[in-house]
Design brief:
Elements: E1 2-3, E2 6-10, H1 16-29, H2 36-47, E3 54-59, E4 65-76, E5 81-91, H3 100-115, E6 120-122, H4 129-139
Parallel strand pairs: 5-6
Antiparallel strand pairs: 1-2, 2-3, 3-4, 4-5
């Protein structure tokens, strides 16, 4: 899918070197302590056709990967339908404001439409002010749900 100068395409086995710096940038932003073992495992998920996690890269007109999303389908029991879940989204900081996030969201909208998903859901940290302002542009505001995390 193309949106102006940005094209969003599924990740292929040849895209690891383009994906890796974006995934690392995402991890740094969220203060996640990842290592090459984690990267390799996520990459395996993304390139294994039967795995639920799907990866997509946004490419600019010069052929550089400038953004990523990781999405998956999951059940929404109260509607009796499947829905989309956005696990990860990251745009190269040097490309922010250039329409990359809009292209990724347009891709998500088209994916939801094509697959019959009534909604896409995602989480973000409270300190992601720029991301939250962008999300509000599409959704109006955050939902009224509060997420809890039980660690083991």
């Amino acid at each position: 899918m193309s949106n102006g100068d940005i094209t969003v395409k599924p990740i292929t086995a040849e895209d690891k070197d383009a994906w890796r710096p974006l995934f690392r940038g995402y991890a740094v932003f969220y203060k996640a302590d990842i290592n090459s073992g984690i990267e390799d495992e996520v990459w395996r998920w993304l390139t294994e056709p039967a795995h639920v996690l799907e990866g997509y890269l946004a490419w600019n007109a010069e052929g550089s990967a400038v953004g990523l999303i990781h999405i998956r389908e999951c059940p929404r029991p109260l509607s009796g339908k499947m829905m989309g879940f956005l696990d990860d989204m990251f745009v190269d900081p040097r490309q922010r404001g250039a329409g990359v996030a809009d292209a990724l969201f347009e891709f998500m909208r088209q994916t939801a439409e094509d697959r019959g998903w009534p909604v896409f859901r995602w989480l973000t940290q409270h300190y992601n002010y720029r991301g939250r302002a962008f999300y509000d542009k599409y959704t109006g505001s955050s939902s009224d749900f509060i997420m809890y995390q039980w660690k083991f």
